[in-house]
Amino acid sequence: MAKSSTSFTSEGQPKKRRGKSERTKILEALERLGKTETDFYDELMSRAVNTDDTFMFKEVLSRISPVPKAVAPIFKFDLPQEAKPHVKADYVLTAMANGDIPSDIGNICIQAIKAMIDIEEYTDLKERIIKLEEALSG
Questions:
Q1: What is the dihedral sign for C-alpha 50, 54, 55, 56?
Q2: What does the domain layout of the chain look like in residue ranges?
Q3: How far lies 91's CA from each of 33, 72, 119, 128, in Å?
Q4: Which of 35, 48, 107, 127 is the most exposed place for a label (fewest CB within 10 A)?
Q5: Is residue 85 within 8 Å of residue 112, measured between CB atoms?
């Protein structure tokens, strides 16, 4: 295969390289100190079990057993399935006003209703355009 100006050759190398990753830099620094990656982890754990170094203990613990992400609790309230979107939004507002659901959860529900309206509108518009194109072409 013929070589082009963009072929991969010893002369066709990038002018600016990405450089080494942080991990590579750390491993090379350990090597210069005569240490290995295993030595590093041994030192890390010896500091973590030291009662005077609470910071390192917390860091190791957070990696062994991370704090779970906060998740909103489940709230149940009546929402008529066949109702129009504005009626569903009114049900959500009523549930918020009655204290059945918190306002942040209610806001999420109303945003979801709006997203469904947008999806329905897009789908309807797309179908209408397809029908118009078919009518014009044939």
A1: positive
A2: 22-64, 85-137
A3: 67, 20, 21, 31
A4: 127
A5: no
Q: Return the H-helix or E-strand segment holding 128.
A: helix 103-137
Is-above-0.70 flag for pTM? Answer: no
| Per-residue DSSP letter, 16 | S
110-129 pLDDT, tens digit per residue, is 999 999 999 999 999 999 99
Query: Residue 88 class from Cβ within 10 Å (0-12 exposed, 13-18 middle, 19+ buried)?
Result: buried
Query: Vertex 55, ends 49 and 57: CA angle to 5°?
Result: 30
Question: Treating both helix axes as pointing N-terminal to C-terminal, what angle do 54-64 and 37-48 enclose, rounded to 10 degrees?
Answer: 110
Per-residue model confidence as pLDDT tens digits over 29-80: 999 999 999 999 999 899 889 888 888 888 888 888 888 888 888 888 778 8
Write out the E strands in the chain: none
Q: Is the CB of residue 113 less than 8 Å from the CB of residue 88?
A: yes
